[in-house]
């Protein structure tokens, strides 16, 4: 049975202007080293500079023939604006003022993301391996989709910088979430960036 292996990673640590920091470049390089032996068919990245730069750092550790390209579906966006009764109290200020047009645009982007990257292979297809360098919200949406969870459940599915999430798609089966937020390629001092500062294991 063919398998579509989807490897999702948030970009490396970035500064307030959206550019990779030295830490972010180091994180991306280590992720590239971890993935270097995989038969990657493609590396796709968001158009935003922090994701494009992360993809370049990763690609330096991969075989030279590995295709690297931009995918607009991976841009950072809010995939679903929950109704007031779906919204946890701490999230209410985040969604305050969201216009219907903004919510509809985010929903269209989310649908495009799923259509392009979460489709199962056909029975006659070969296995594929694709790496997506994106942002926390698109990763949360793809994980929520894989688990067939309610739309509002993307809230709270956060990703560390360059953490690895793996989803597998097979014909006739539900998606399989294999890993989420795997940080094994990072030393302790490079883990947990992208989260609020607090005690971490």
Q: Approximately how much beta-strand content do the residues carry?
A: 15-25%
Helix content: 25-40%
Instruction: Name the poorly predicted regions.
Output: none
Tell me the number of strands.
6
Distance between the termini: 38 Å
Which overall shape is indicated by the principal axes computed on the Cα atoms?
globular
Q: Average the pLDDT over all residues and give the rounded result.
A: 97
- Sketch the major β-sheet: 6 strands, mixed
**Order of strands across the main sheet:** 3-2-4-1-5-6
- The total of helices stands at 5
Helix and strand succession?
A: EHEHEHHEHEE
Rg over C-alpha atoms, rounded to the nearest angstrom: 17 Å
Structural class: alpha/beta
Task: Describe what this molecule looks like in 3D.
The chain has 201 residues and is an alpha/beta fold. The chain is built from five helices and six strands, in the order βαβαβααβαββ. β5 and β6 form a beta hairpin. α1 packs across α2.
């Amino acid at each position: 049975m063919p398998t579509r292996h989807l490897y999702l990673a948030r970009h490396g640590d970035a500064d307030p202007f959206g550019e990779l920091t030295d830490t972010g470049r180091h994180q991306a390089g280590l992720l590239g080293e971890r993935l270097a032996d995989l038969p990657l068919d493609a590396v796709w990245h968001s158009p935003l500079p922090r994701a494009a730069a992360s993809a370049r750092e990763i690609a330096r550790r991969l075989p030279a023939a590995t295709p690297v390209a931009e995918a607009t579906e991976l841009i950072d966006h809010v995939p679903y604006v929950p109704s007031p009764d779906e919204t946890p109290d701490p999230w209410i200020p985040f969604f305050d003022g969201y216009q219907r047009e903004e919510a509809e645009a985010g929903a269209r982007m989310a649908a495009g993301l799923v259509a392009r990257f979460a489709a199962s292979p056909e029975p006659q297809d070969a296995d594929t391996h694709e790496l997506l360098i994106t942002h926390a919200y698109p990763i949360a949406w793809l994980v929520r989709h894989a688990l067939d969870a309610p739309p509002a459940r993307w809230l709270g599915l956060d990703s560390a910088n360059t953490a690895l999430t793996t989803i597998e798609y097979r014909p006739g089966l539900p998606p399989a979430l294999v890993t989420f937020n795997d940080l094994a390629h990072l030393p302790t001092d490079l883990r947990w960036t992208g989260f609020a500062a607090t005690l971490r294991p």
